[in-house]
Structure formats: structure tokens, C-alpha cells
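Researcher: Go.
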Amino acid sequence: MQRQRSYLMIIFLVFFLFACANEVQTDEESEIQNTEIIEEVFYPEGLYEEDGKNIYWNGNIVEKADPKTFQGILDPNDKTPEDINDNDFYFFKDENALYMSSGPFGGNATLGRYAMESTDNLVLPKGMLLYLKYVIEGNSVYYLSDKGIAVKIPDADLETFEEIDGDGYVRDKNHIYFCGKTLKEADVKTFSKLGERSSVYRDKENAYYHGRIIEEADSKTFQTIRNRHGGICYYKDKNYVYWSVQPVPKKGPTVVTVEGADPETFECVNTSHEYDGKDKDYFYKNGKIKIFVPEPEDELVNLNS
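Model: Structure:
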């Protein structure tokens, strides 16, 4: 009986060692595969070259790049070579900076440089955070600014840092962020999207459009005004009607009040190319009064003639 137990122990030990060996082999294979992916992406396709003095990408010198420490970084959303496609962005780093392409390799794509104090513990987050230009270094979150600097976000909580609904807003347990800026007035607990297809967010105190507070807006009654196809043509609250203005230099997109509009009776006009809204008194186009709403016996009066 004792001999039988000894045989069983030996068999168990052999199976245990075999399993451990397979586990180690799997880890080694995984590491080799990741190396092969990086080599396949960055080297045979000639995504960058170096001559000992300079780094070249897309045929151009990468300014200030350090050829001794320059290396490719695999997009964390690509797990295998099959995930890599012509629409991918590309990422690199050296000891002084992170580099991110403006688009796929080839064509007019350029390589943006973002200076960092250190890249030793640089992590590219998965999902949309990366393409919203947020990266992680050590225990800190950085935003890749338009000035070519990775700006540290003060007090960002790494564990709860996440994107909100695809409009550029990010939050953690303490704050709301937009394009790397902390929206100090925003209330994290009540901050939410106004509705499907809308770019407006609101909390208990304010309404926001592209990271800016909509002046004079009443957040509790703020709502979209939709046409019959479901598209948004205007916004309104208990006091005003609002029109979203396209981006202008240095100001970006914004929302303004529509002068003279009555929020109680305002609605979208679905059939006319000349007008896109109306209330009890006027027709409107692009946020401006166009003509009086006529009584049956009156003629239309064009206010802009």
C-alpha cells in the first residue's frame, strides 16, 4: 500500500513539473511573440531609420530625436500582427519624449514630439484615452498638449481615470477633464450627457459645450430641439433658445442665445431650406431671425432685405 502511494506521489510530481514547464514556455512564447510583432511593425516596413546622428520617419528628420534611445512602441490596442492595419497610428519614444503620428504611415502624416521629464515608466493606455492624447508615466497622468509638451494633470486619480461617452470628456473620482484641462466647476456625481447625438453635457449647476460653460443656461431645464428625423437643430431651456456656432479661431465651438426667440413655442422647421426654426412670431435660419410668421391675410416680411 505504501509503495502504491509512493508511485502516485511520483506521478503527481511529474505532472506538476510538466505543467510548470508548459507555463514558463507559454510566458516565453508570449514575450517572443510581442518582440516579433514590434519588429514586424517597425523595422521591415522601414517606419523609421537612423544614421547615428538623426532619426528619419516618413522620409523626414525627426527633430530632437535621440538615435541612441529611440524605439517603437506597440499600440496597446493591437495584440497580434493581424490587428495592425493601414489606419493605425504609430508611437515611439526616446529618453526625452514621446512621439505620436498624426495619422497612418505614408502620405502627409507627421510625427508629433511631446517632451517629457522621463519616459522610463511610460505606459500607453488602452482604448480611447490614448487617442484623446492621455498617457501614463509612473503614477501620473499626462496630456499631450498642442505645444509639444506632455503636461502633468495635477491630482488626477490613476485608478479611476476614464473616458466619458466619446466626446472628449474624461473623469476620475474627483474631477471632470476636457483636453487636459480640469473643469473645476463641474460636479463629478451629476455630470452626464444631455442625450443621444448631443454634444452638450450638464451637471446640477451648469450646461457644457466642448468644455465650456454655456452662459445663462439653466441646466435643470436645458434640452435639445429635434427635427422629425431626430437631428438636433437647436437647444432651449425655460429662458432662452440656443444655437450651436461652428468653431472660430482661438474660441472653438460654442453655443449662443437666439435673440428674440420664444422657448415655449420654438420648434424645428423640417421642410424648408430657407428656414430651420420657428416660434409664434418668427422664422429662423442658423440662429438668426429671417422673417415674421405671417397671419393668413398678411404677406411675408423679410427682415434682412
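Model: The first strand starts at residue 49 and ends at 50.
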